[in-house]
Write a structure and sequence with these properties.
three-stranded parallel sheet, two-stranded antiparallel sheet, globular
Amino acid sequence: MENIKKYGVKFNNKICRASRGTVVISCDTVARKTKNHYVGGGGTDLRAGIALAESCGDAIVVITDGLTPWPESPKKPVICVLVTIDNSVTAPEWIAKTIKIQVAT
């Protein structure tokens, strides 16, 4: 039970945790599954990335600067790692968990 509490995410009163292999999706204006090659550098649209990720597992983790269009409300829980230079960028309220990392400029 401790591992579920530590590594899981509560979503609609259910604990969701990784139980299958991890799928990595690189997302710019187009989303694509990848093993370790990340394509990007501007123009990110997480609507495409989250739509593809919803068919891959039980939960979604995004790493972003937050400067992206977001979908209305995904069907799966989303954990957002928000990498920002200040606190002016926020994630949508429907995000299950937000982890903010502030980097120096």
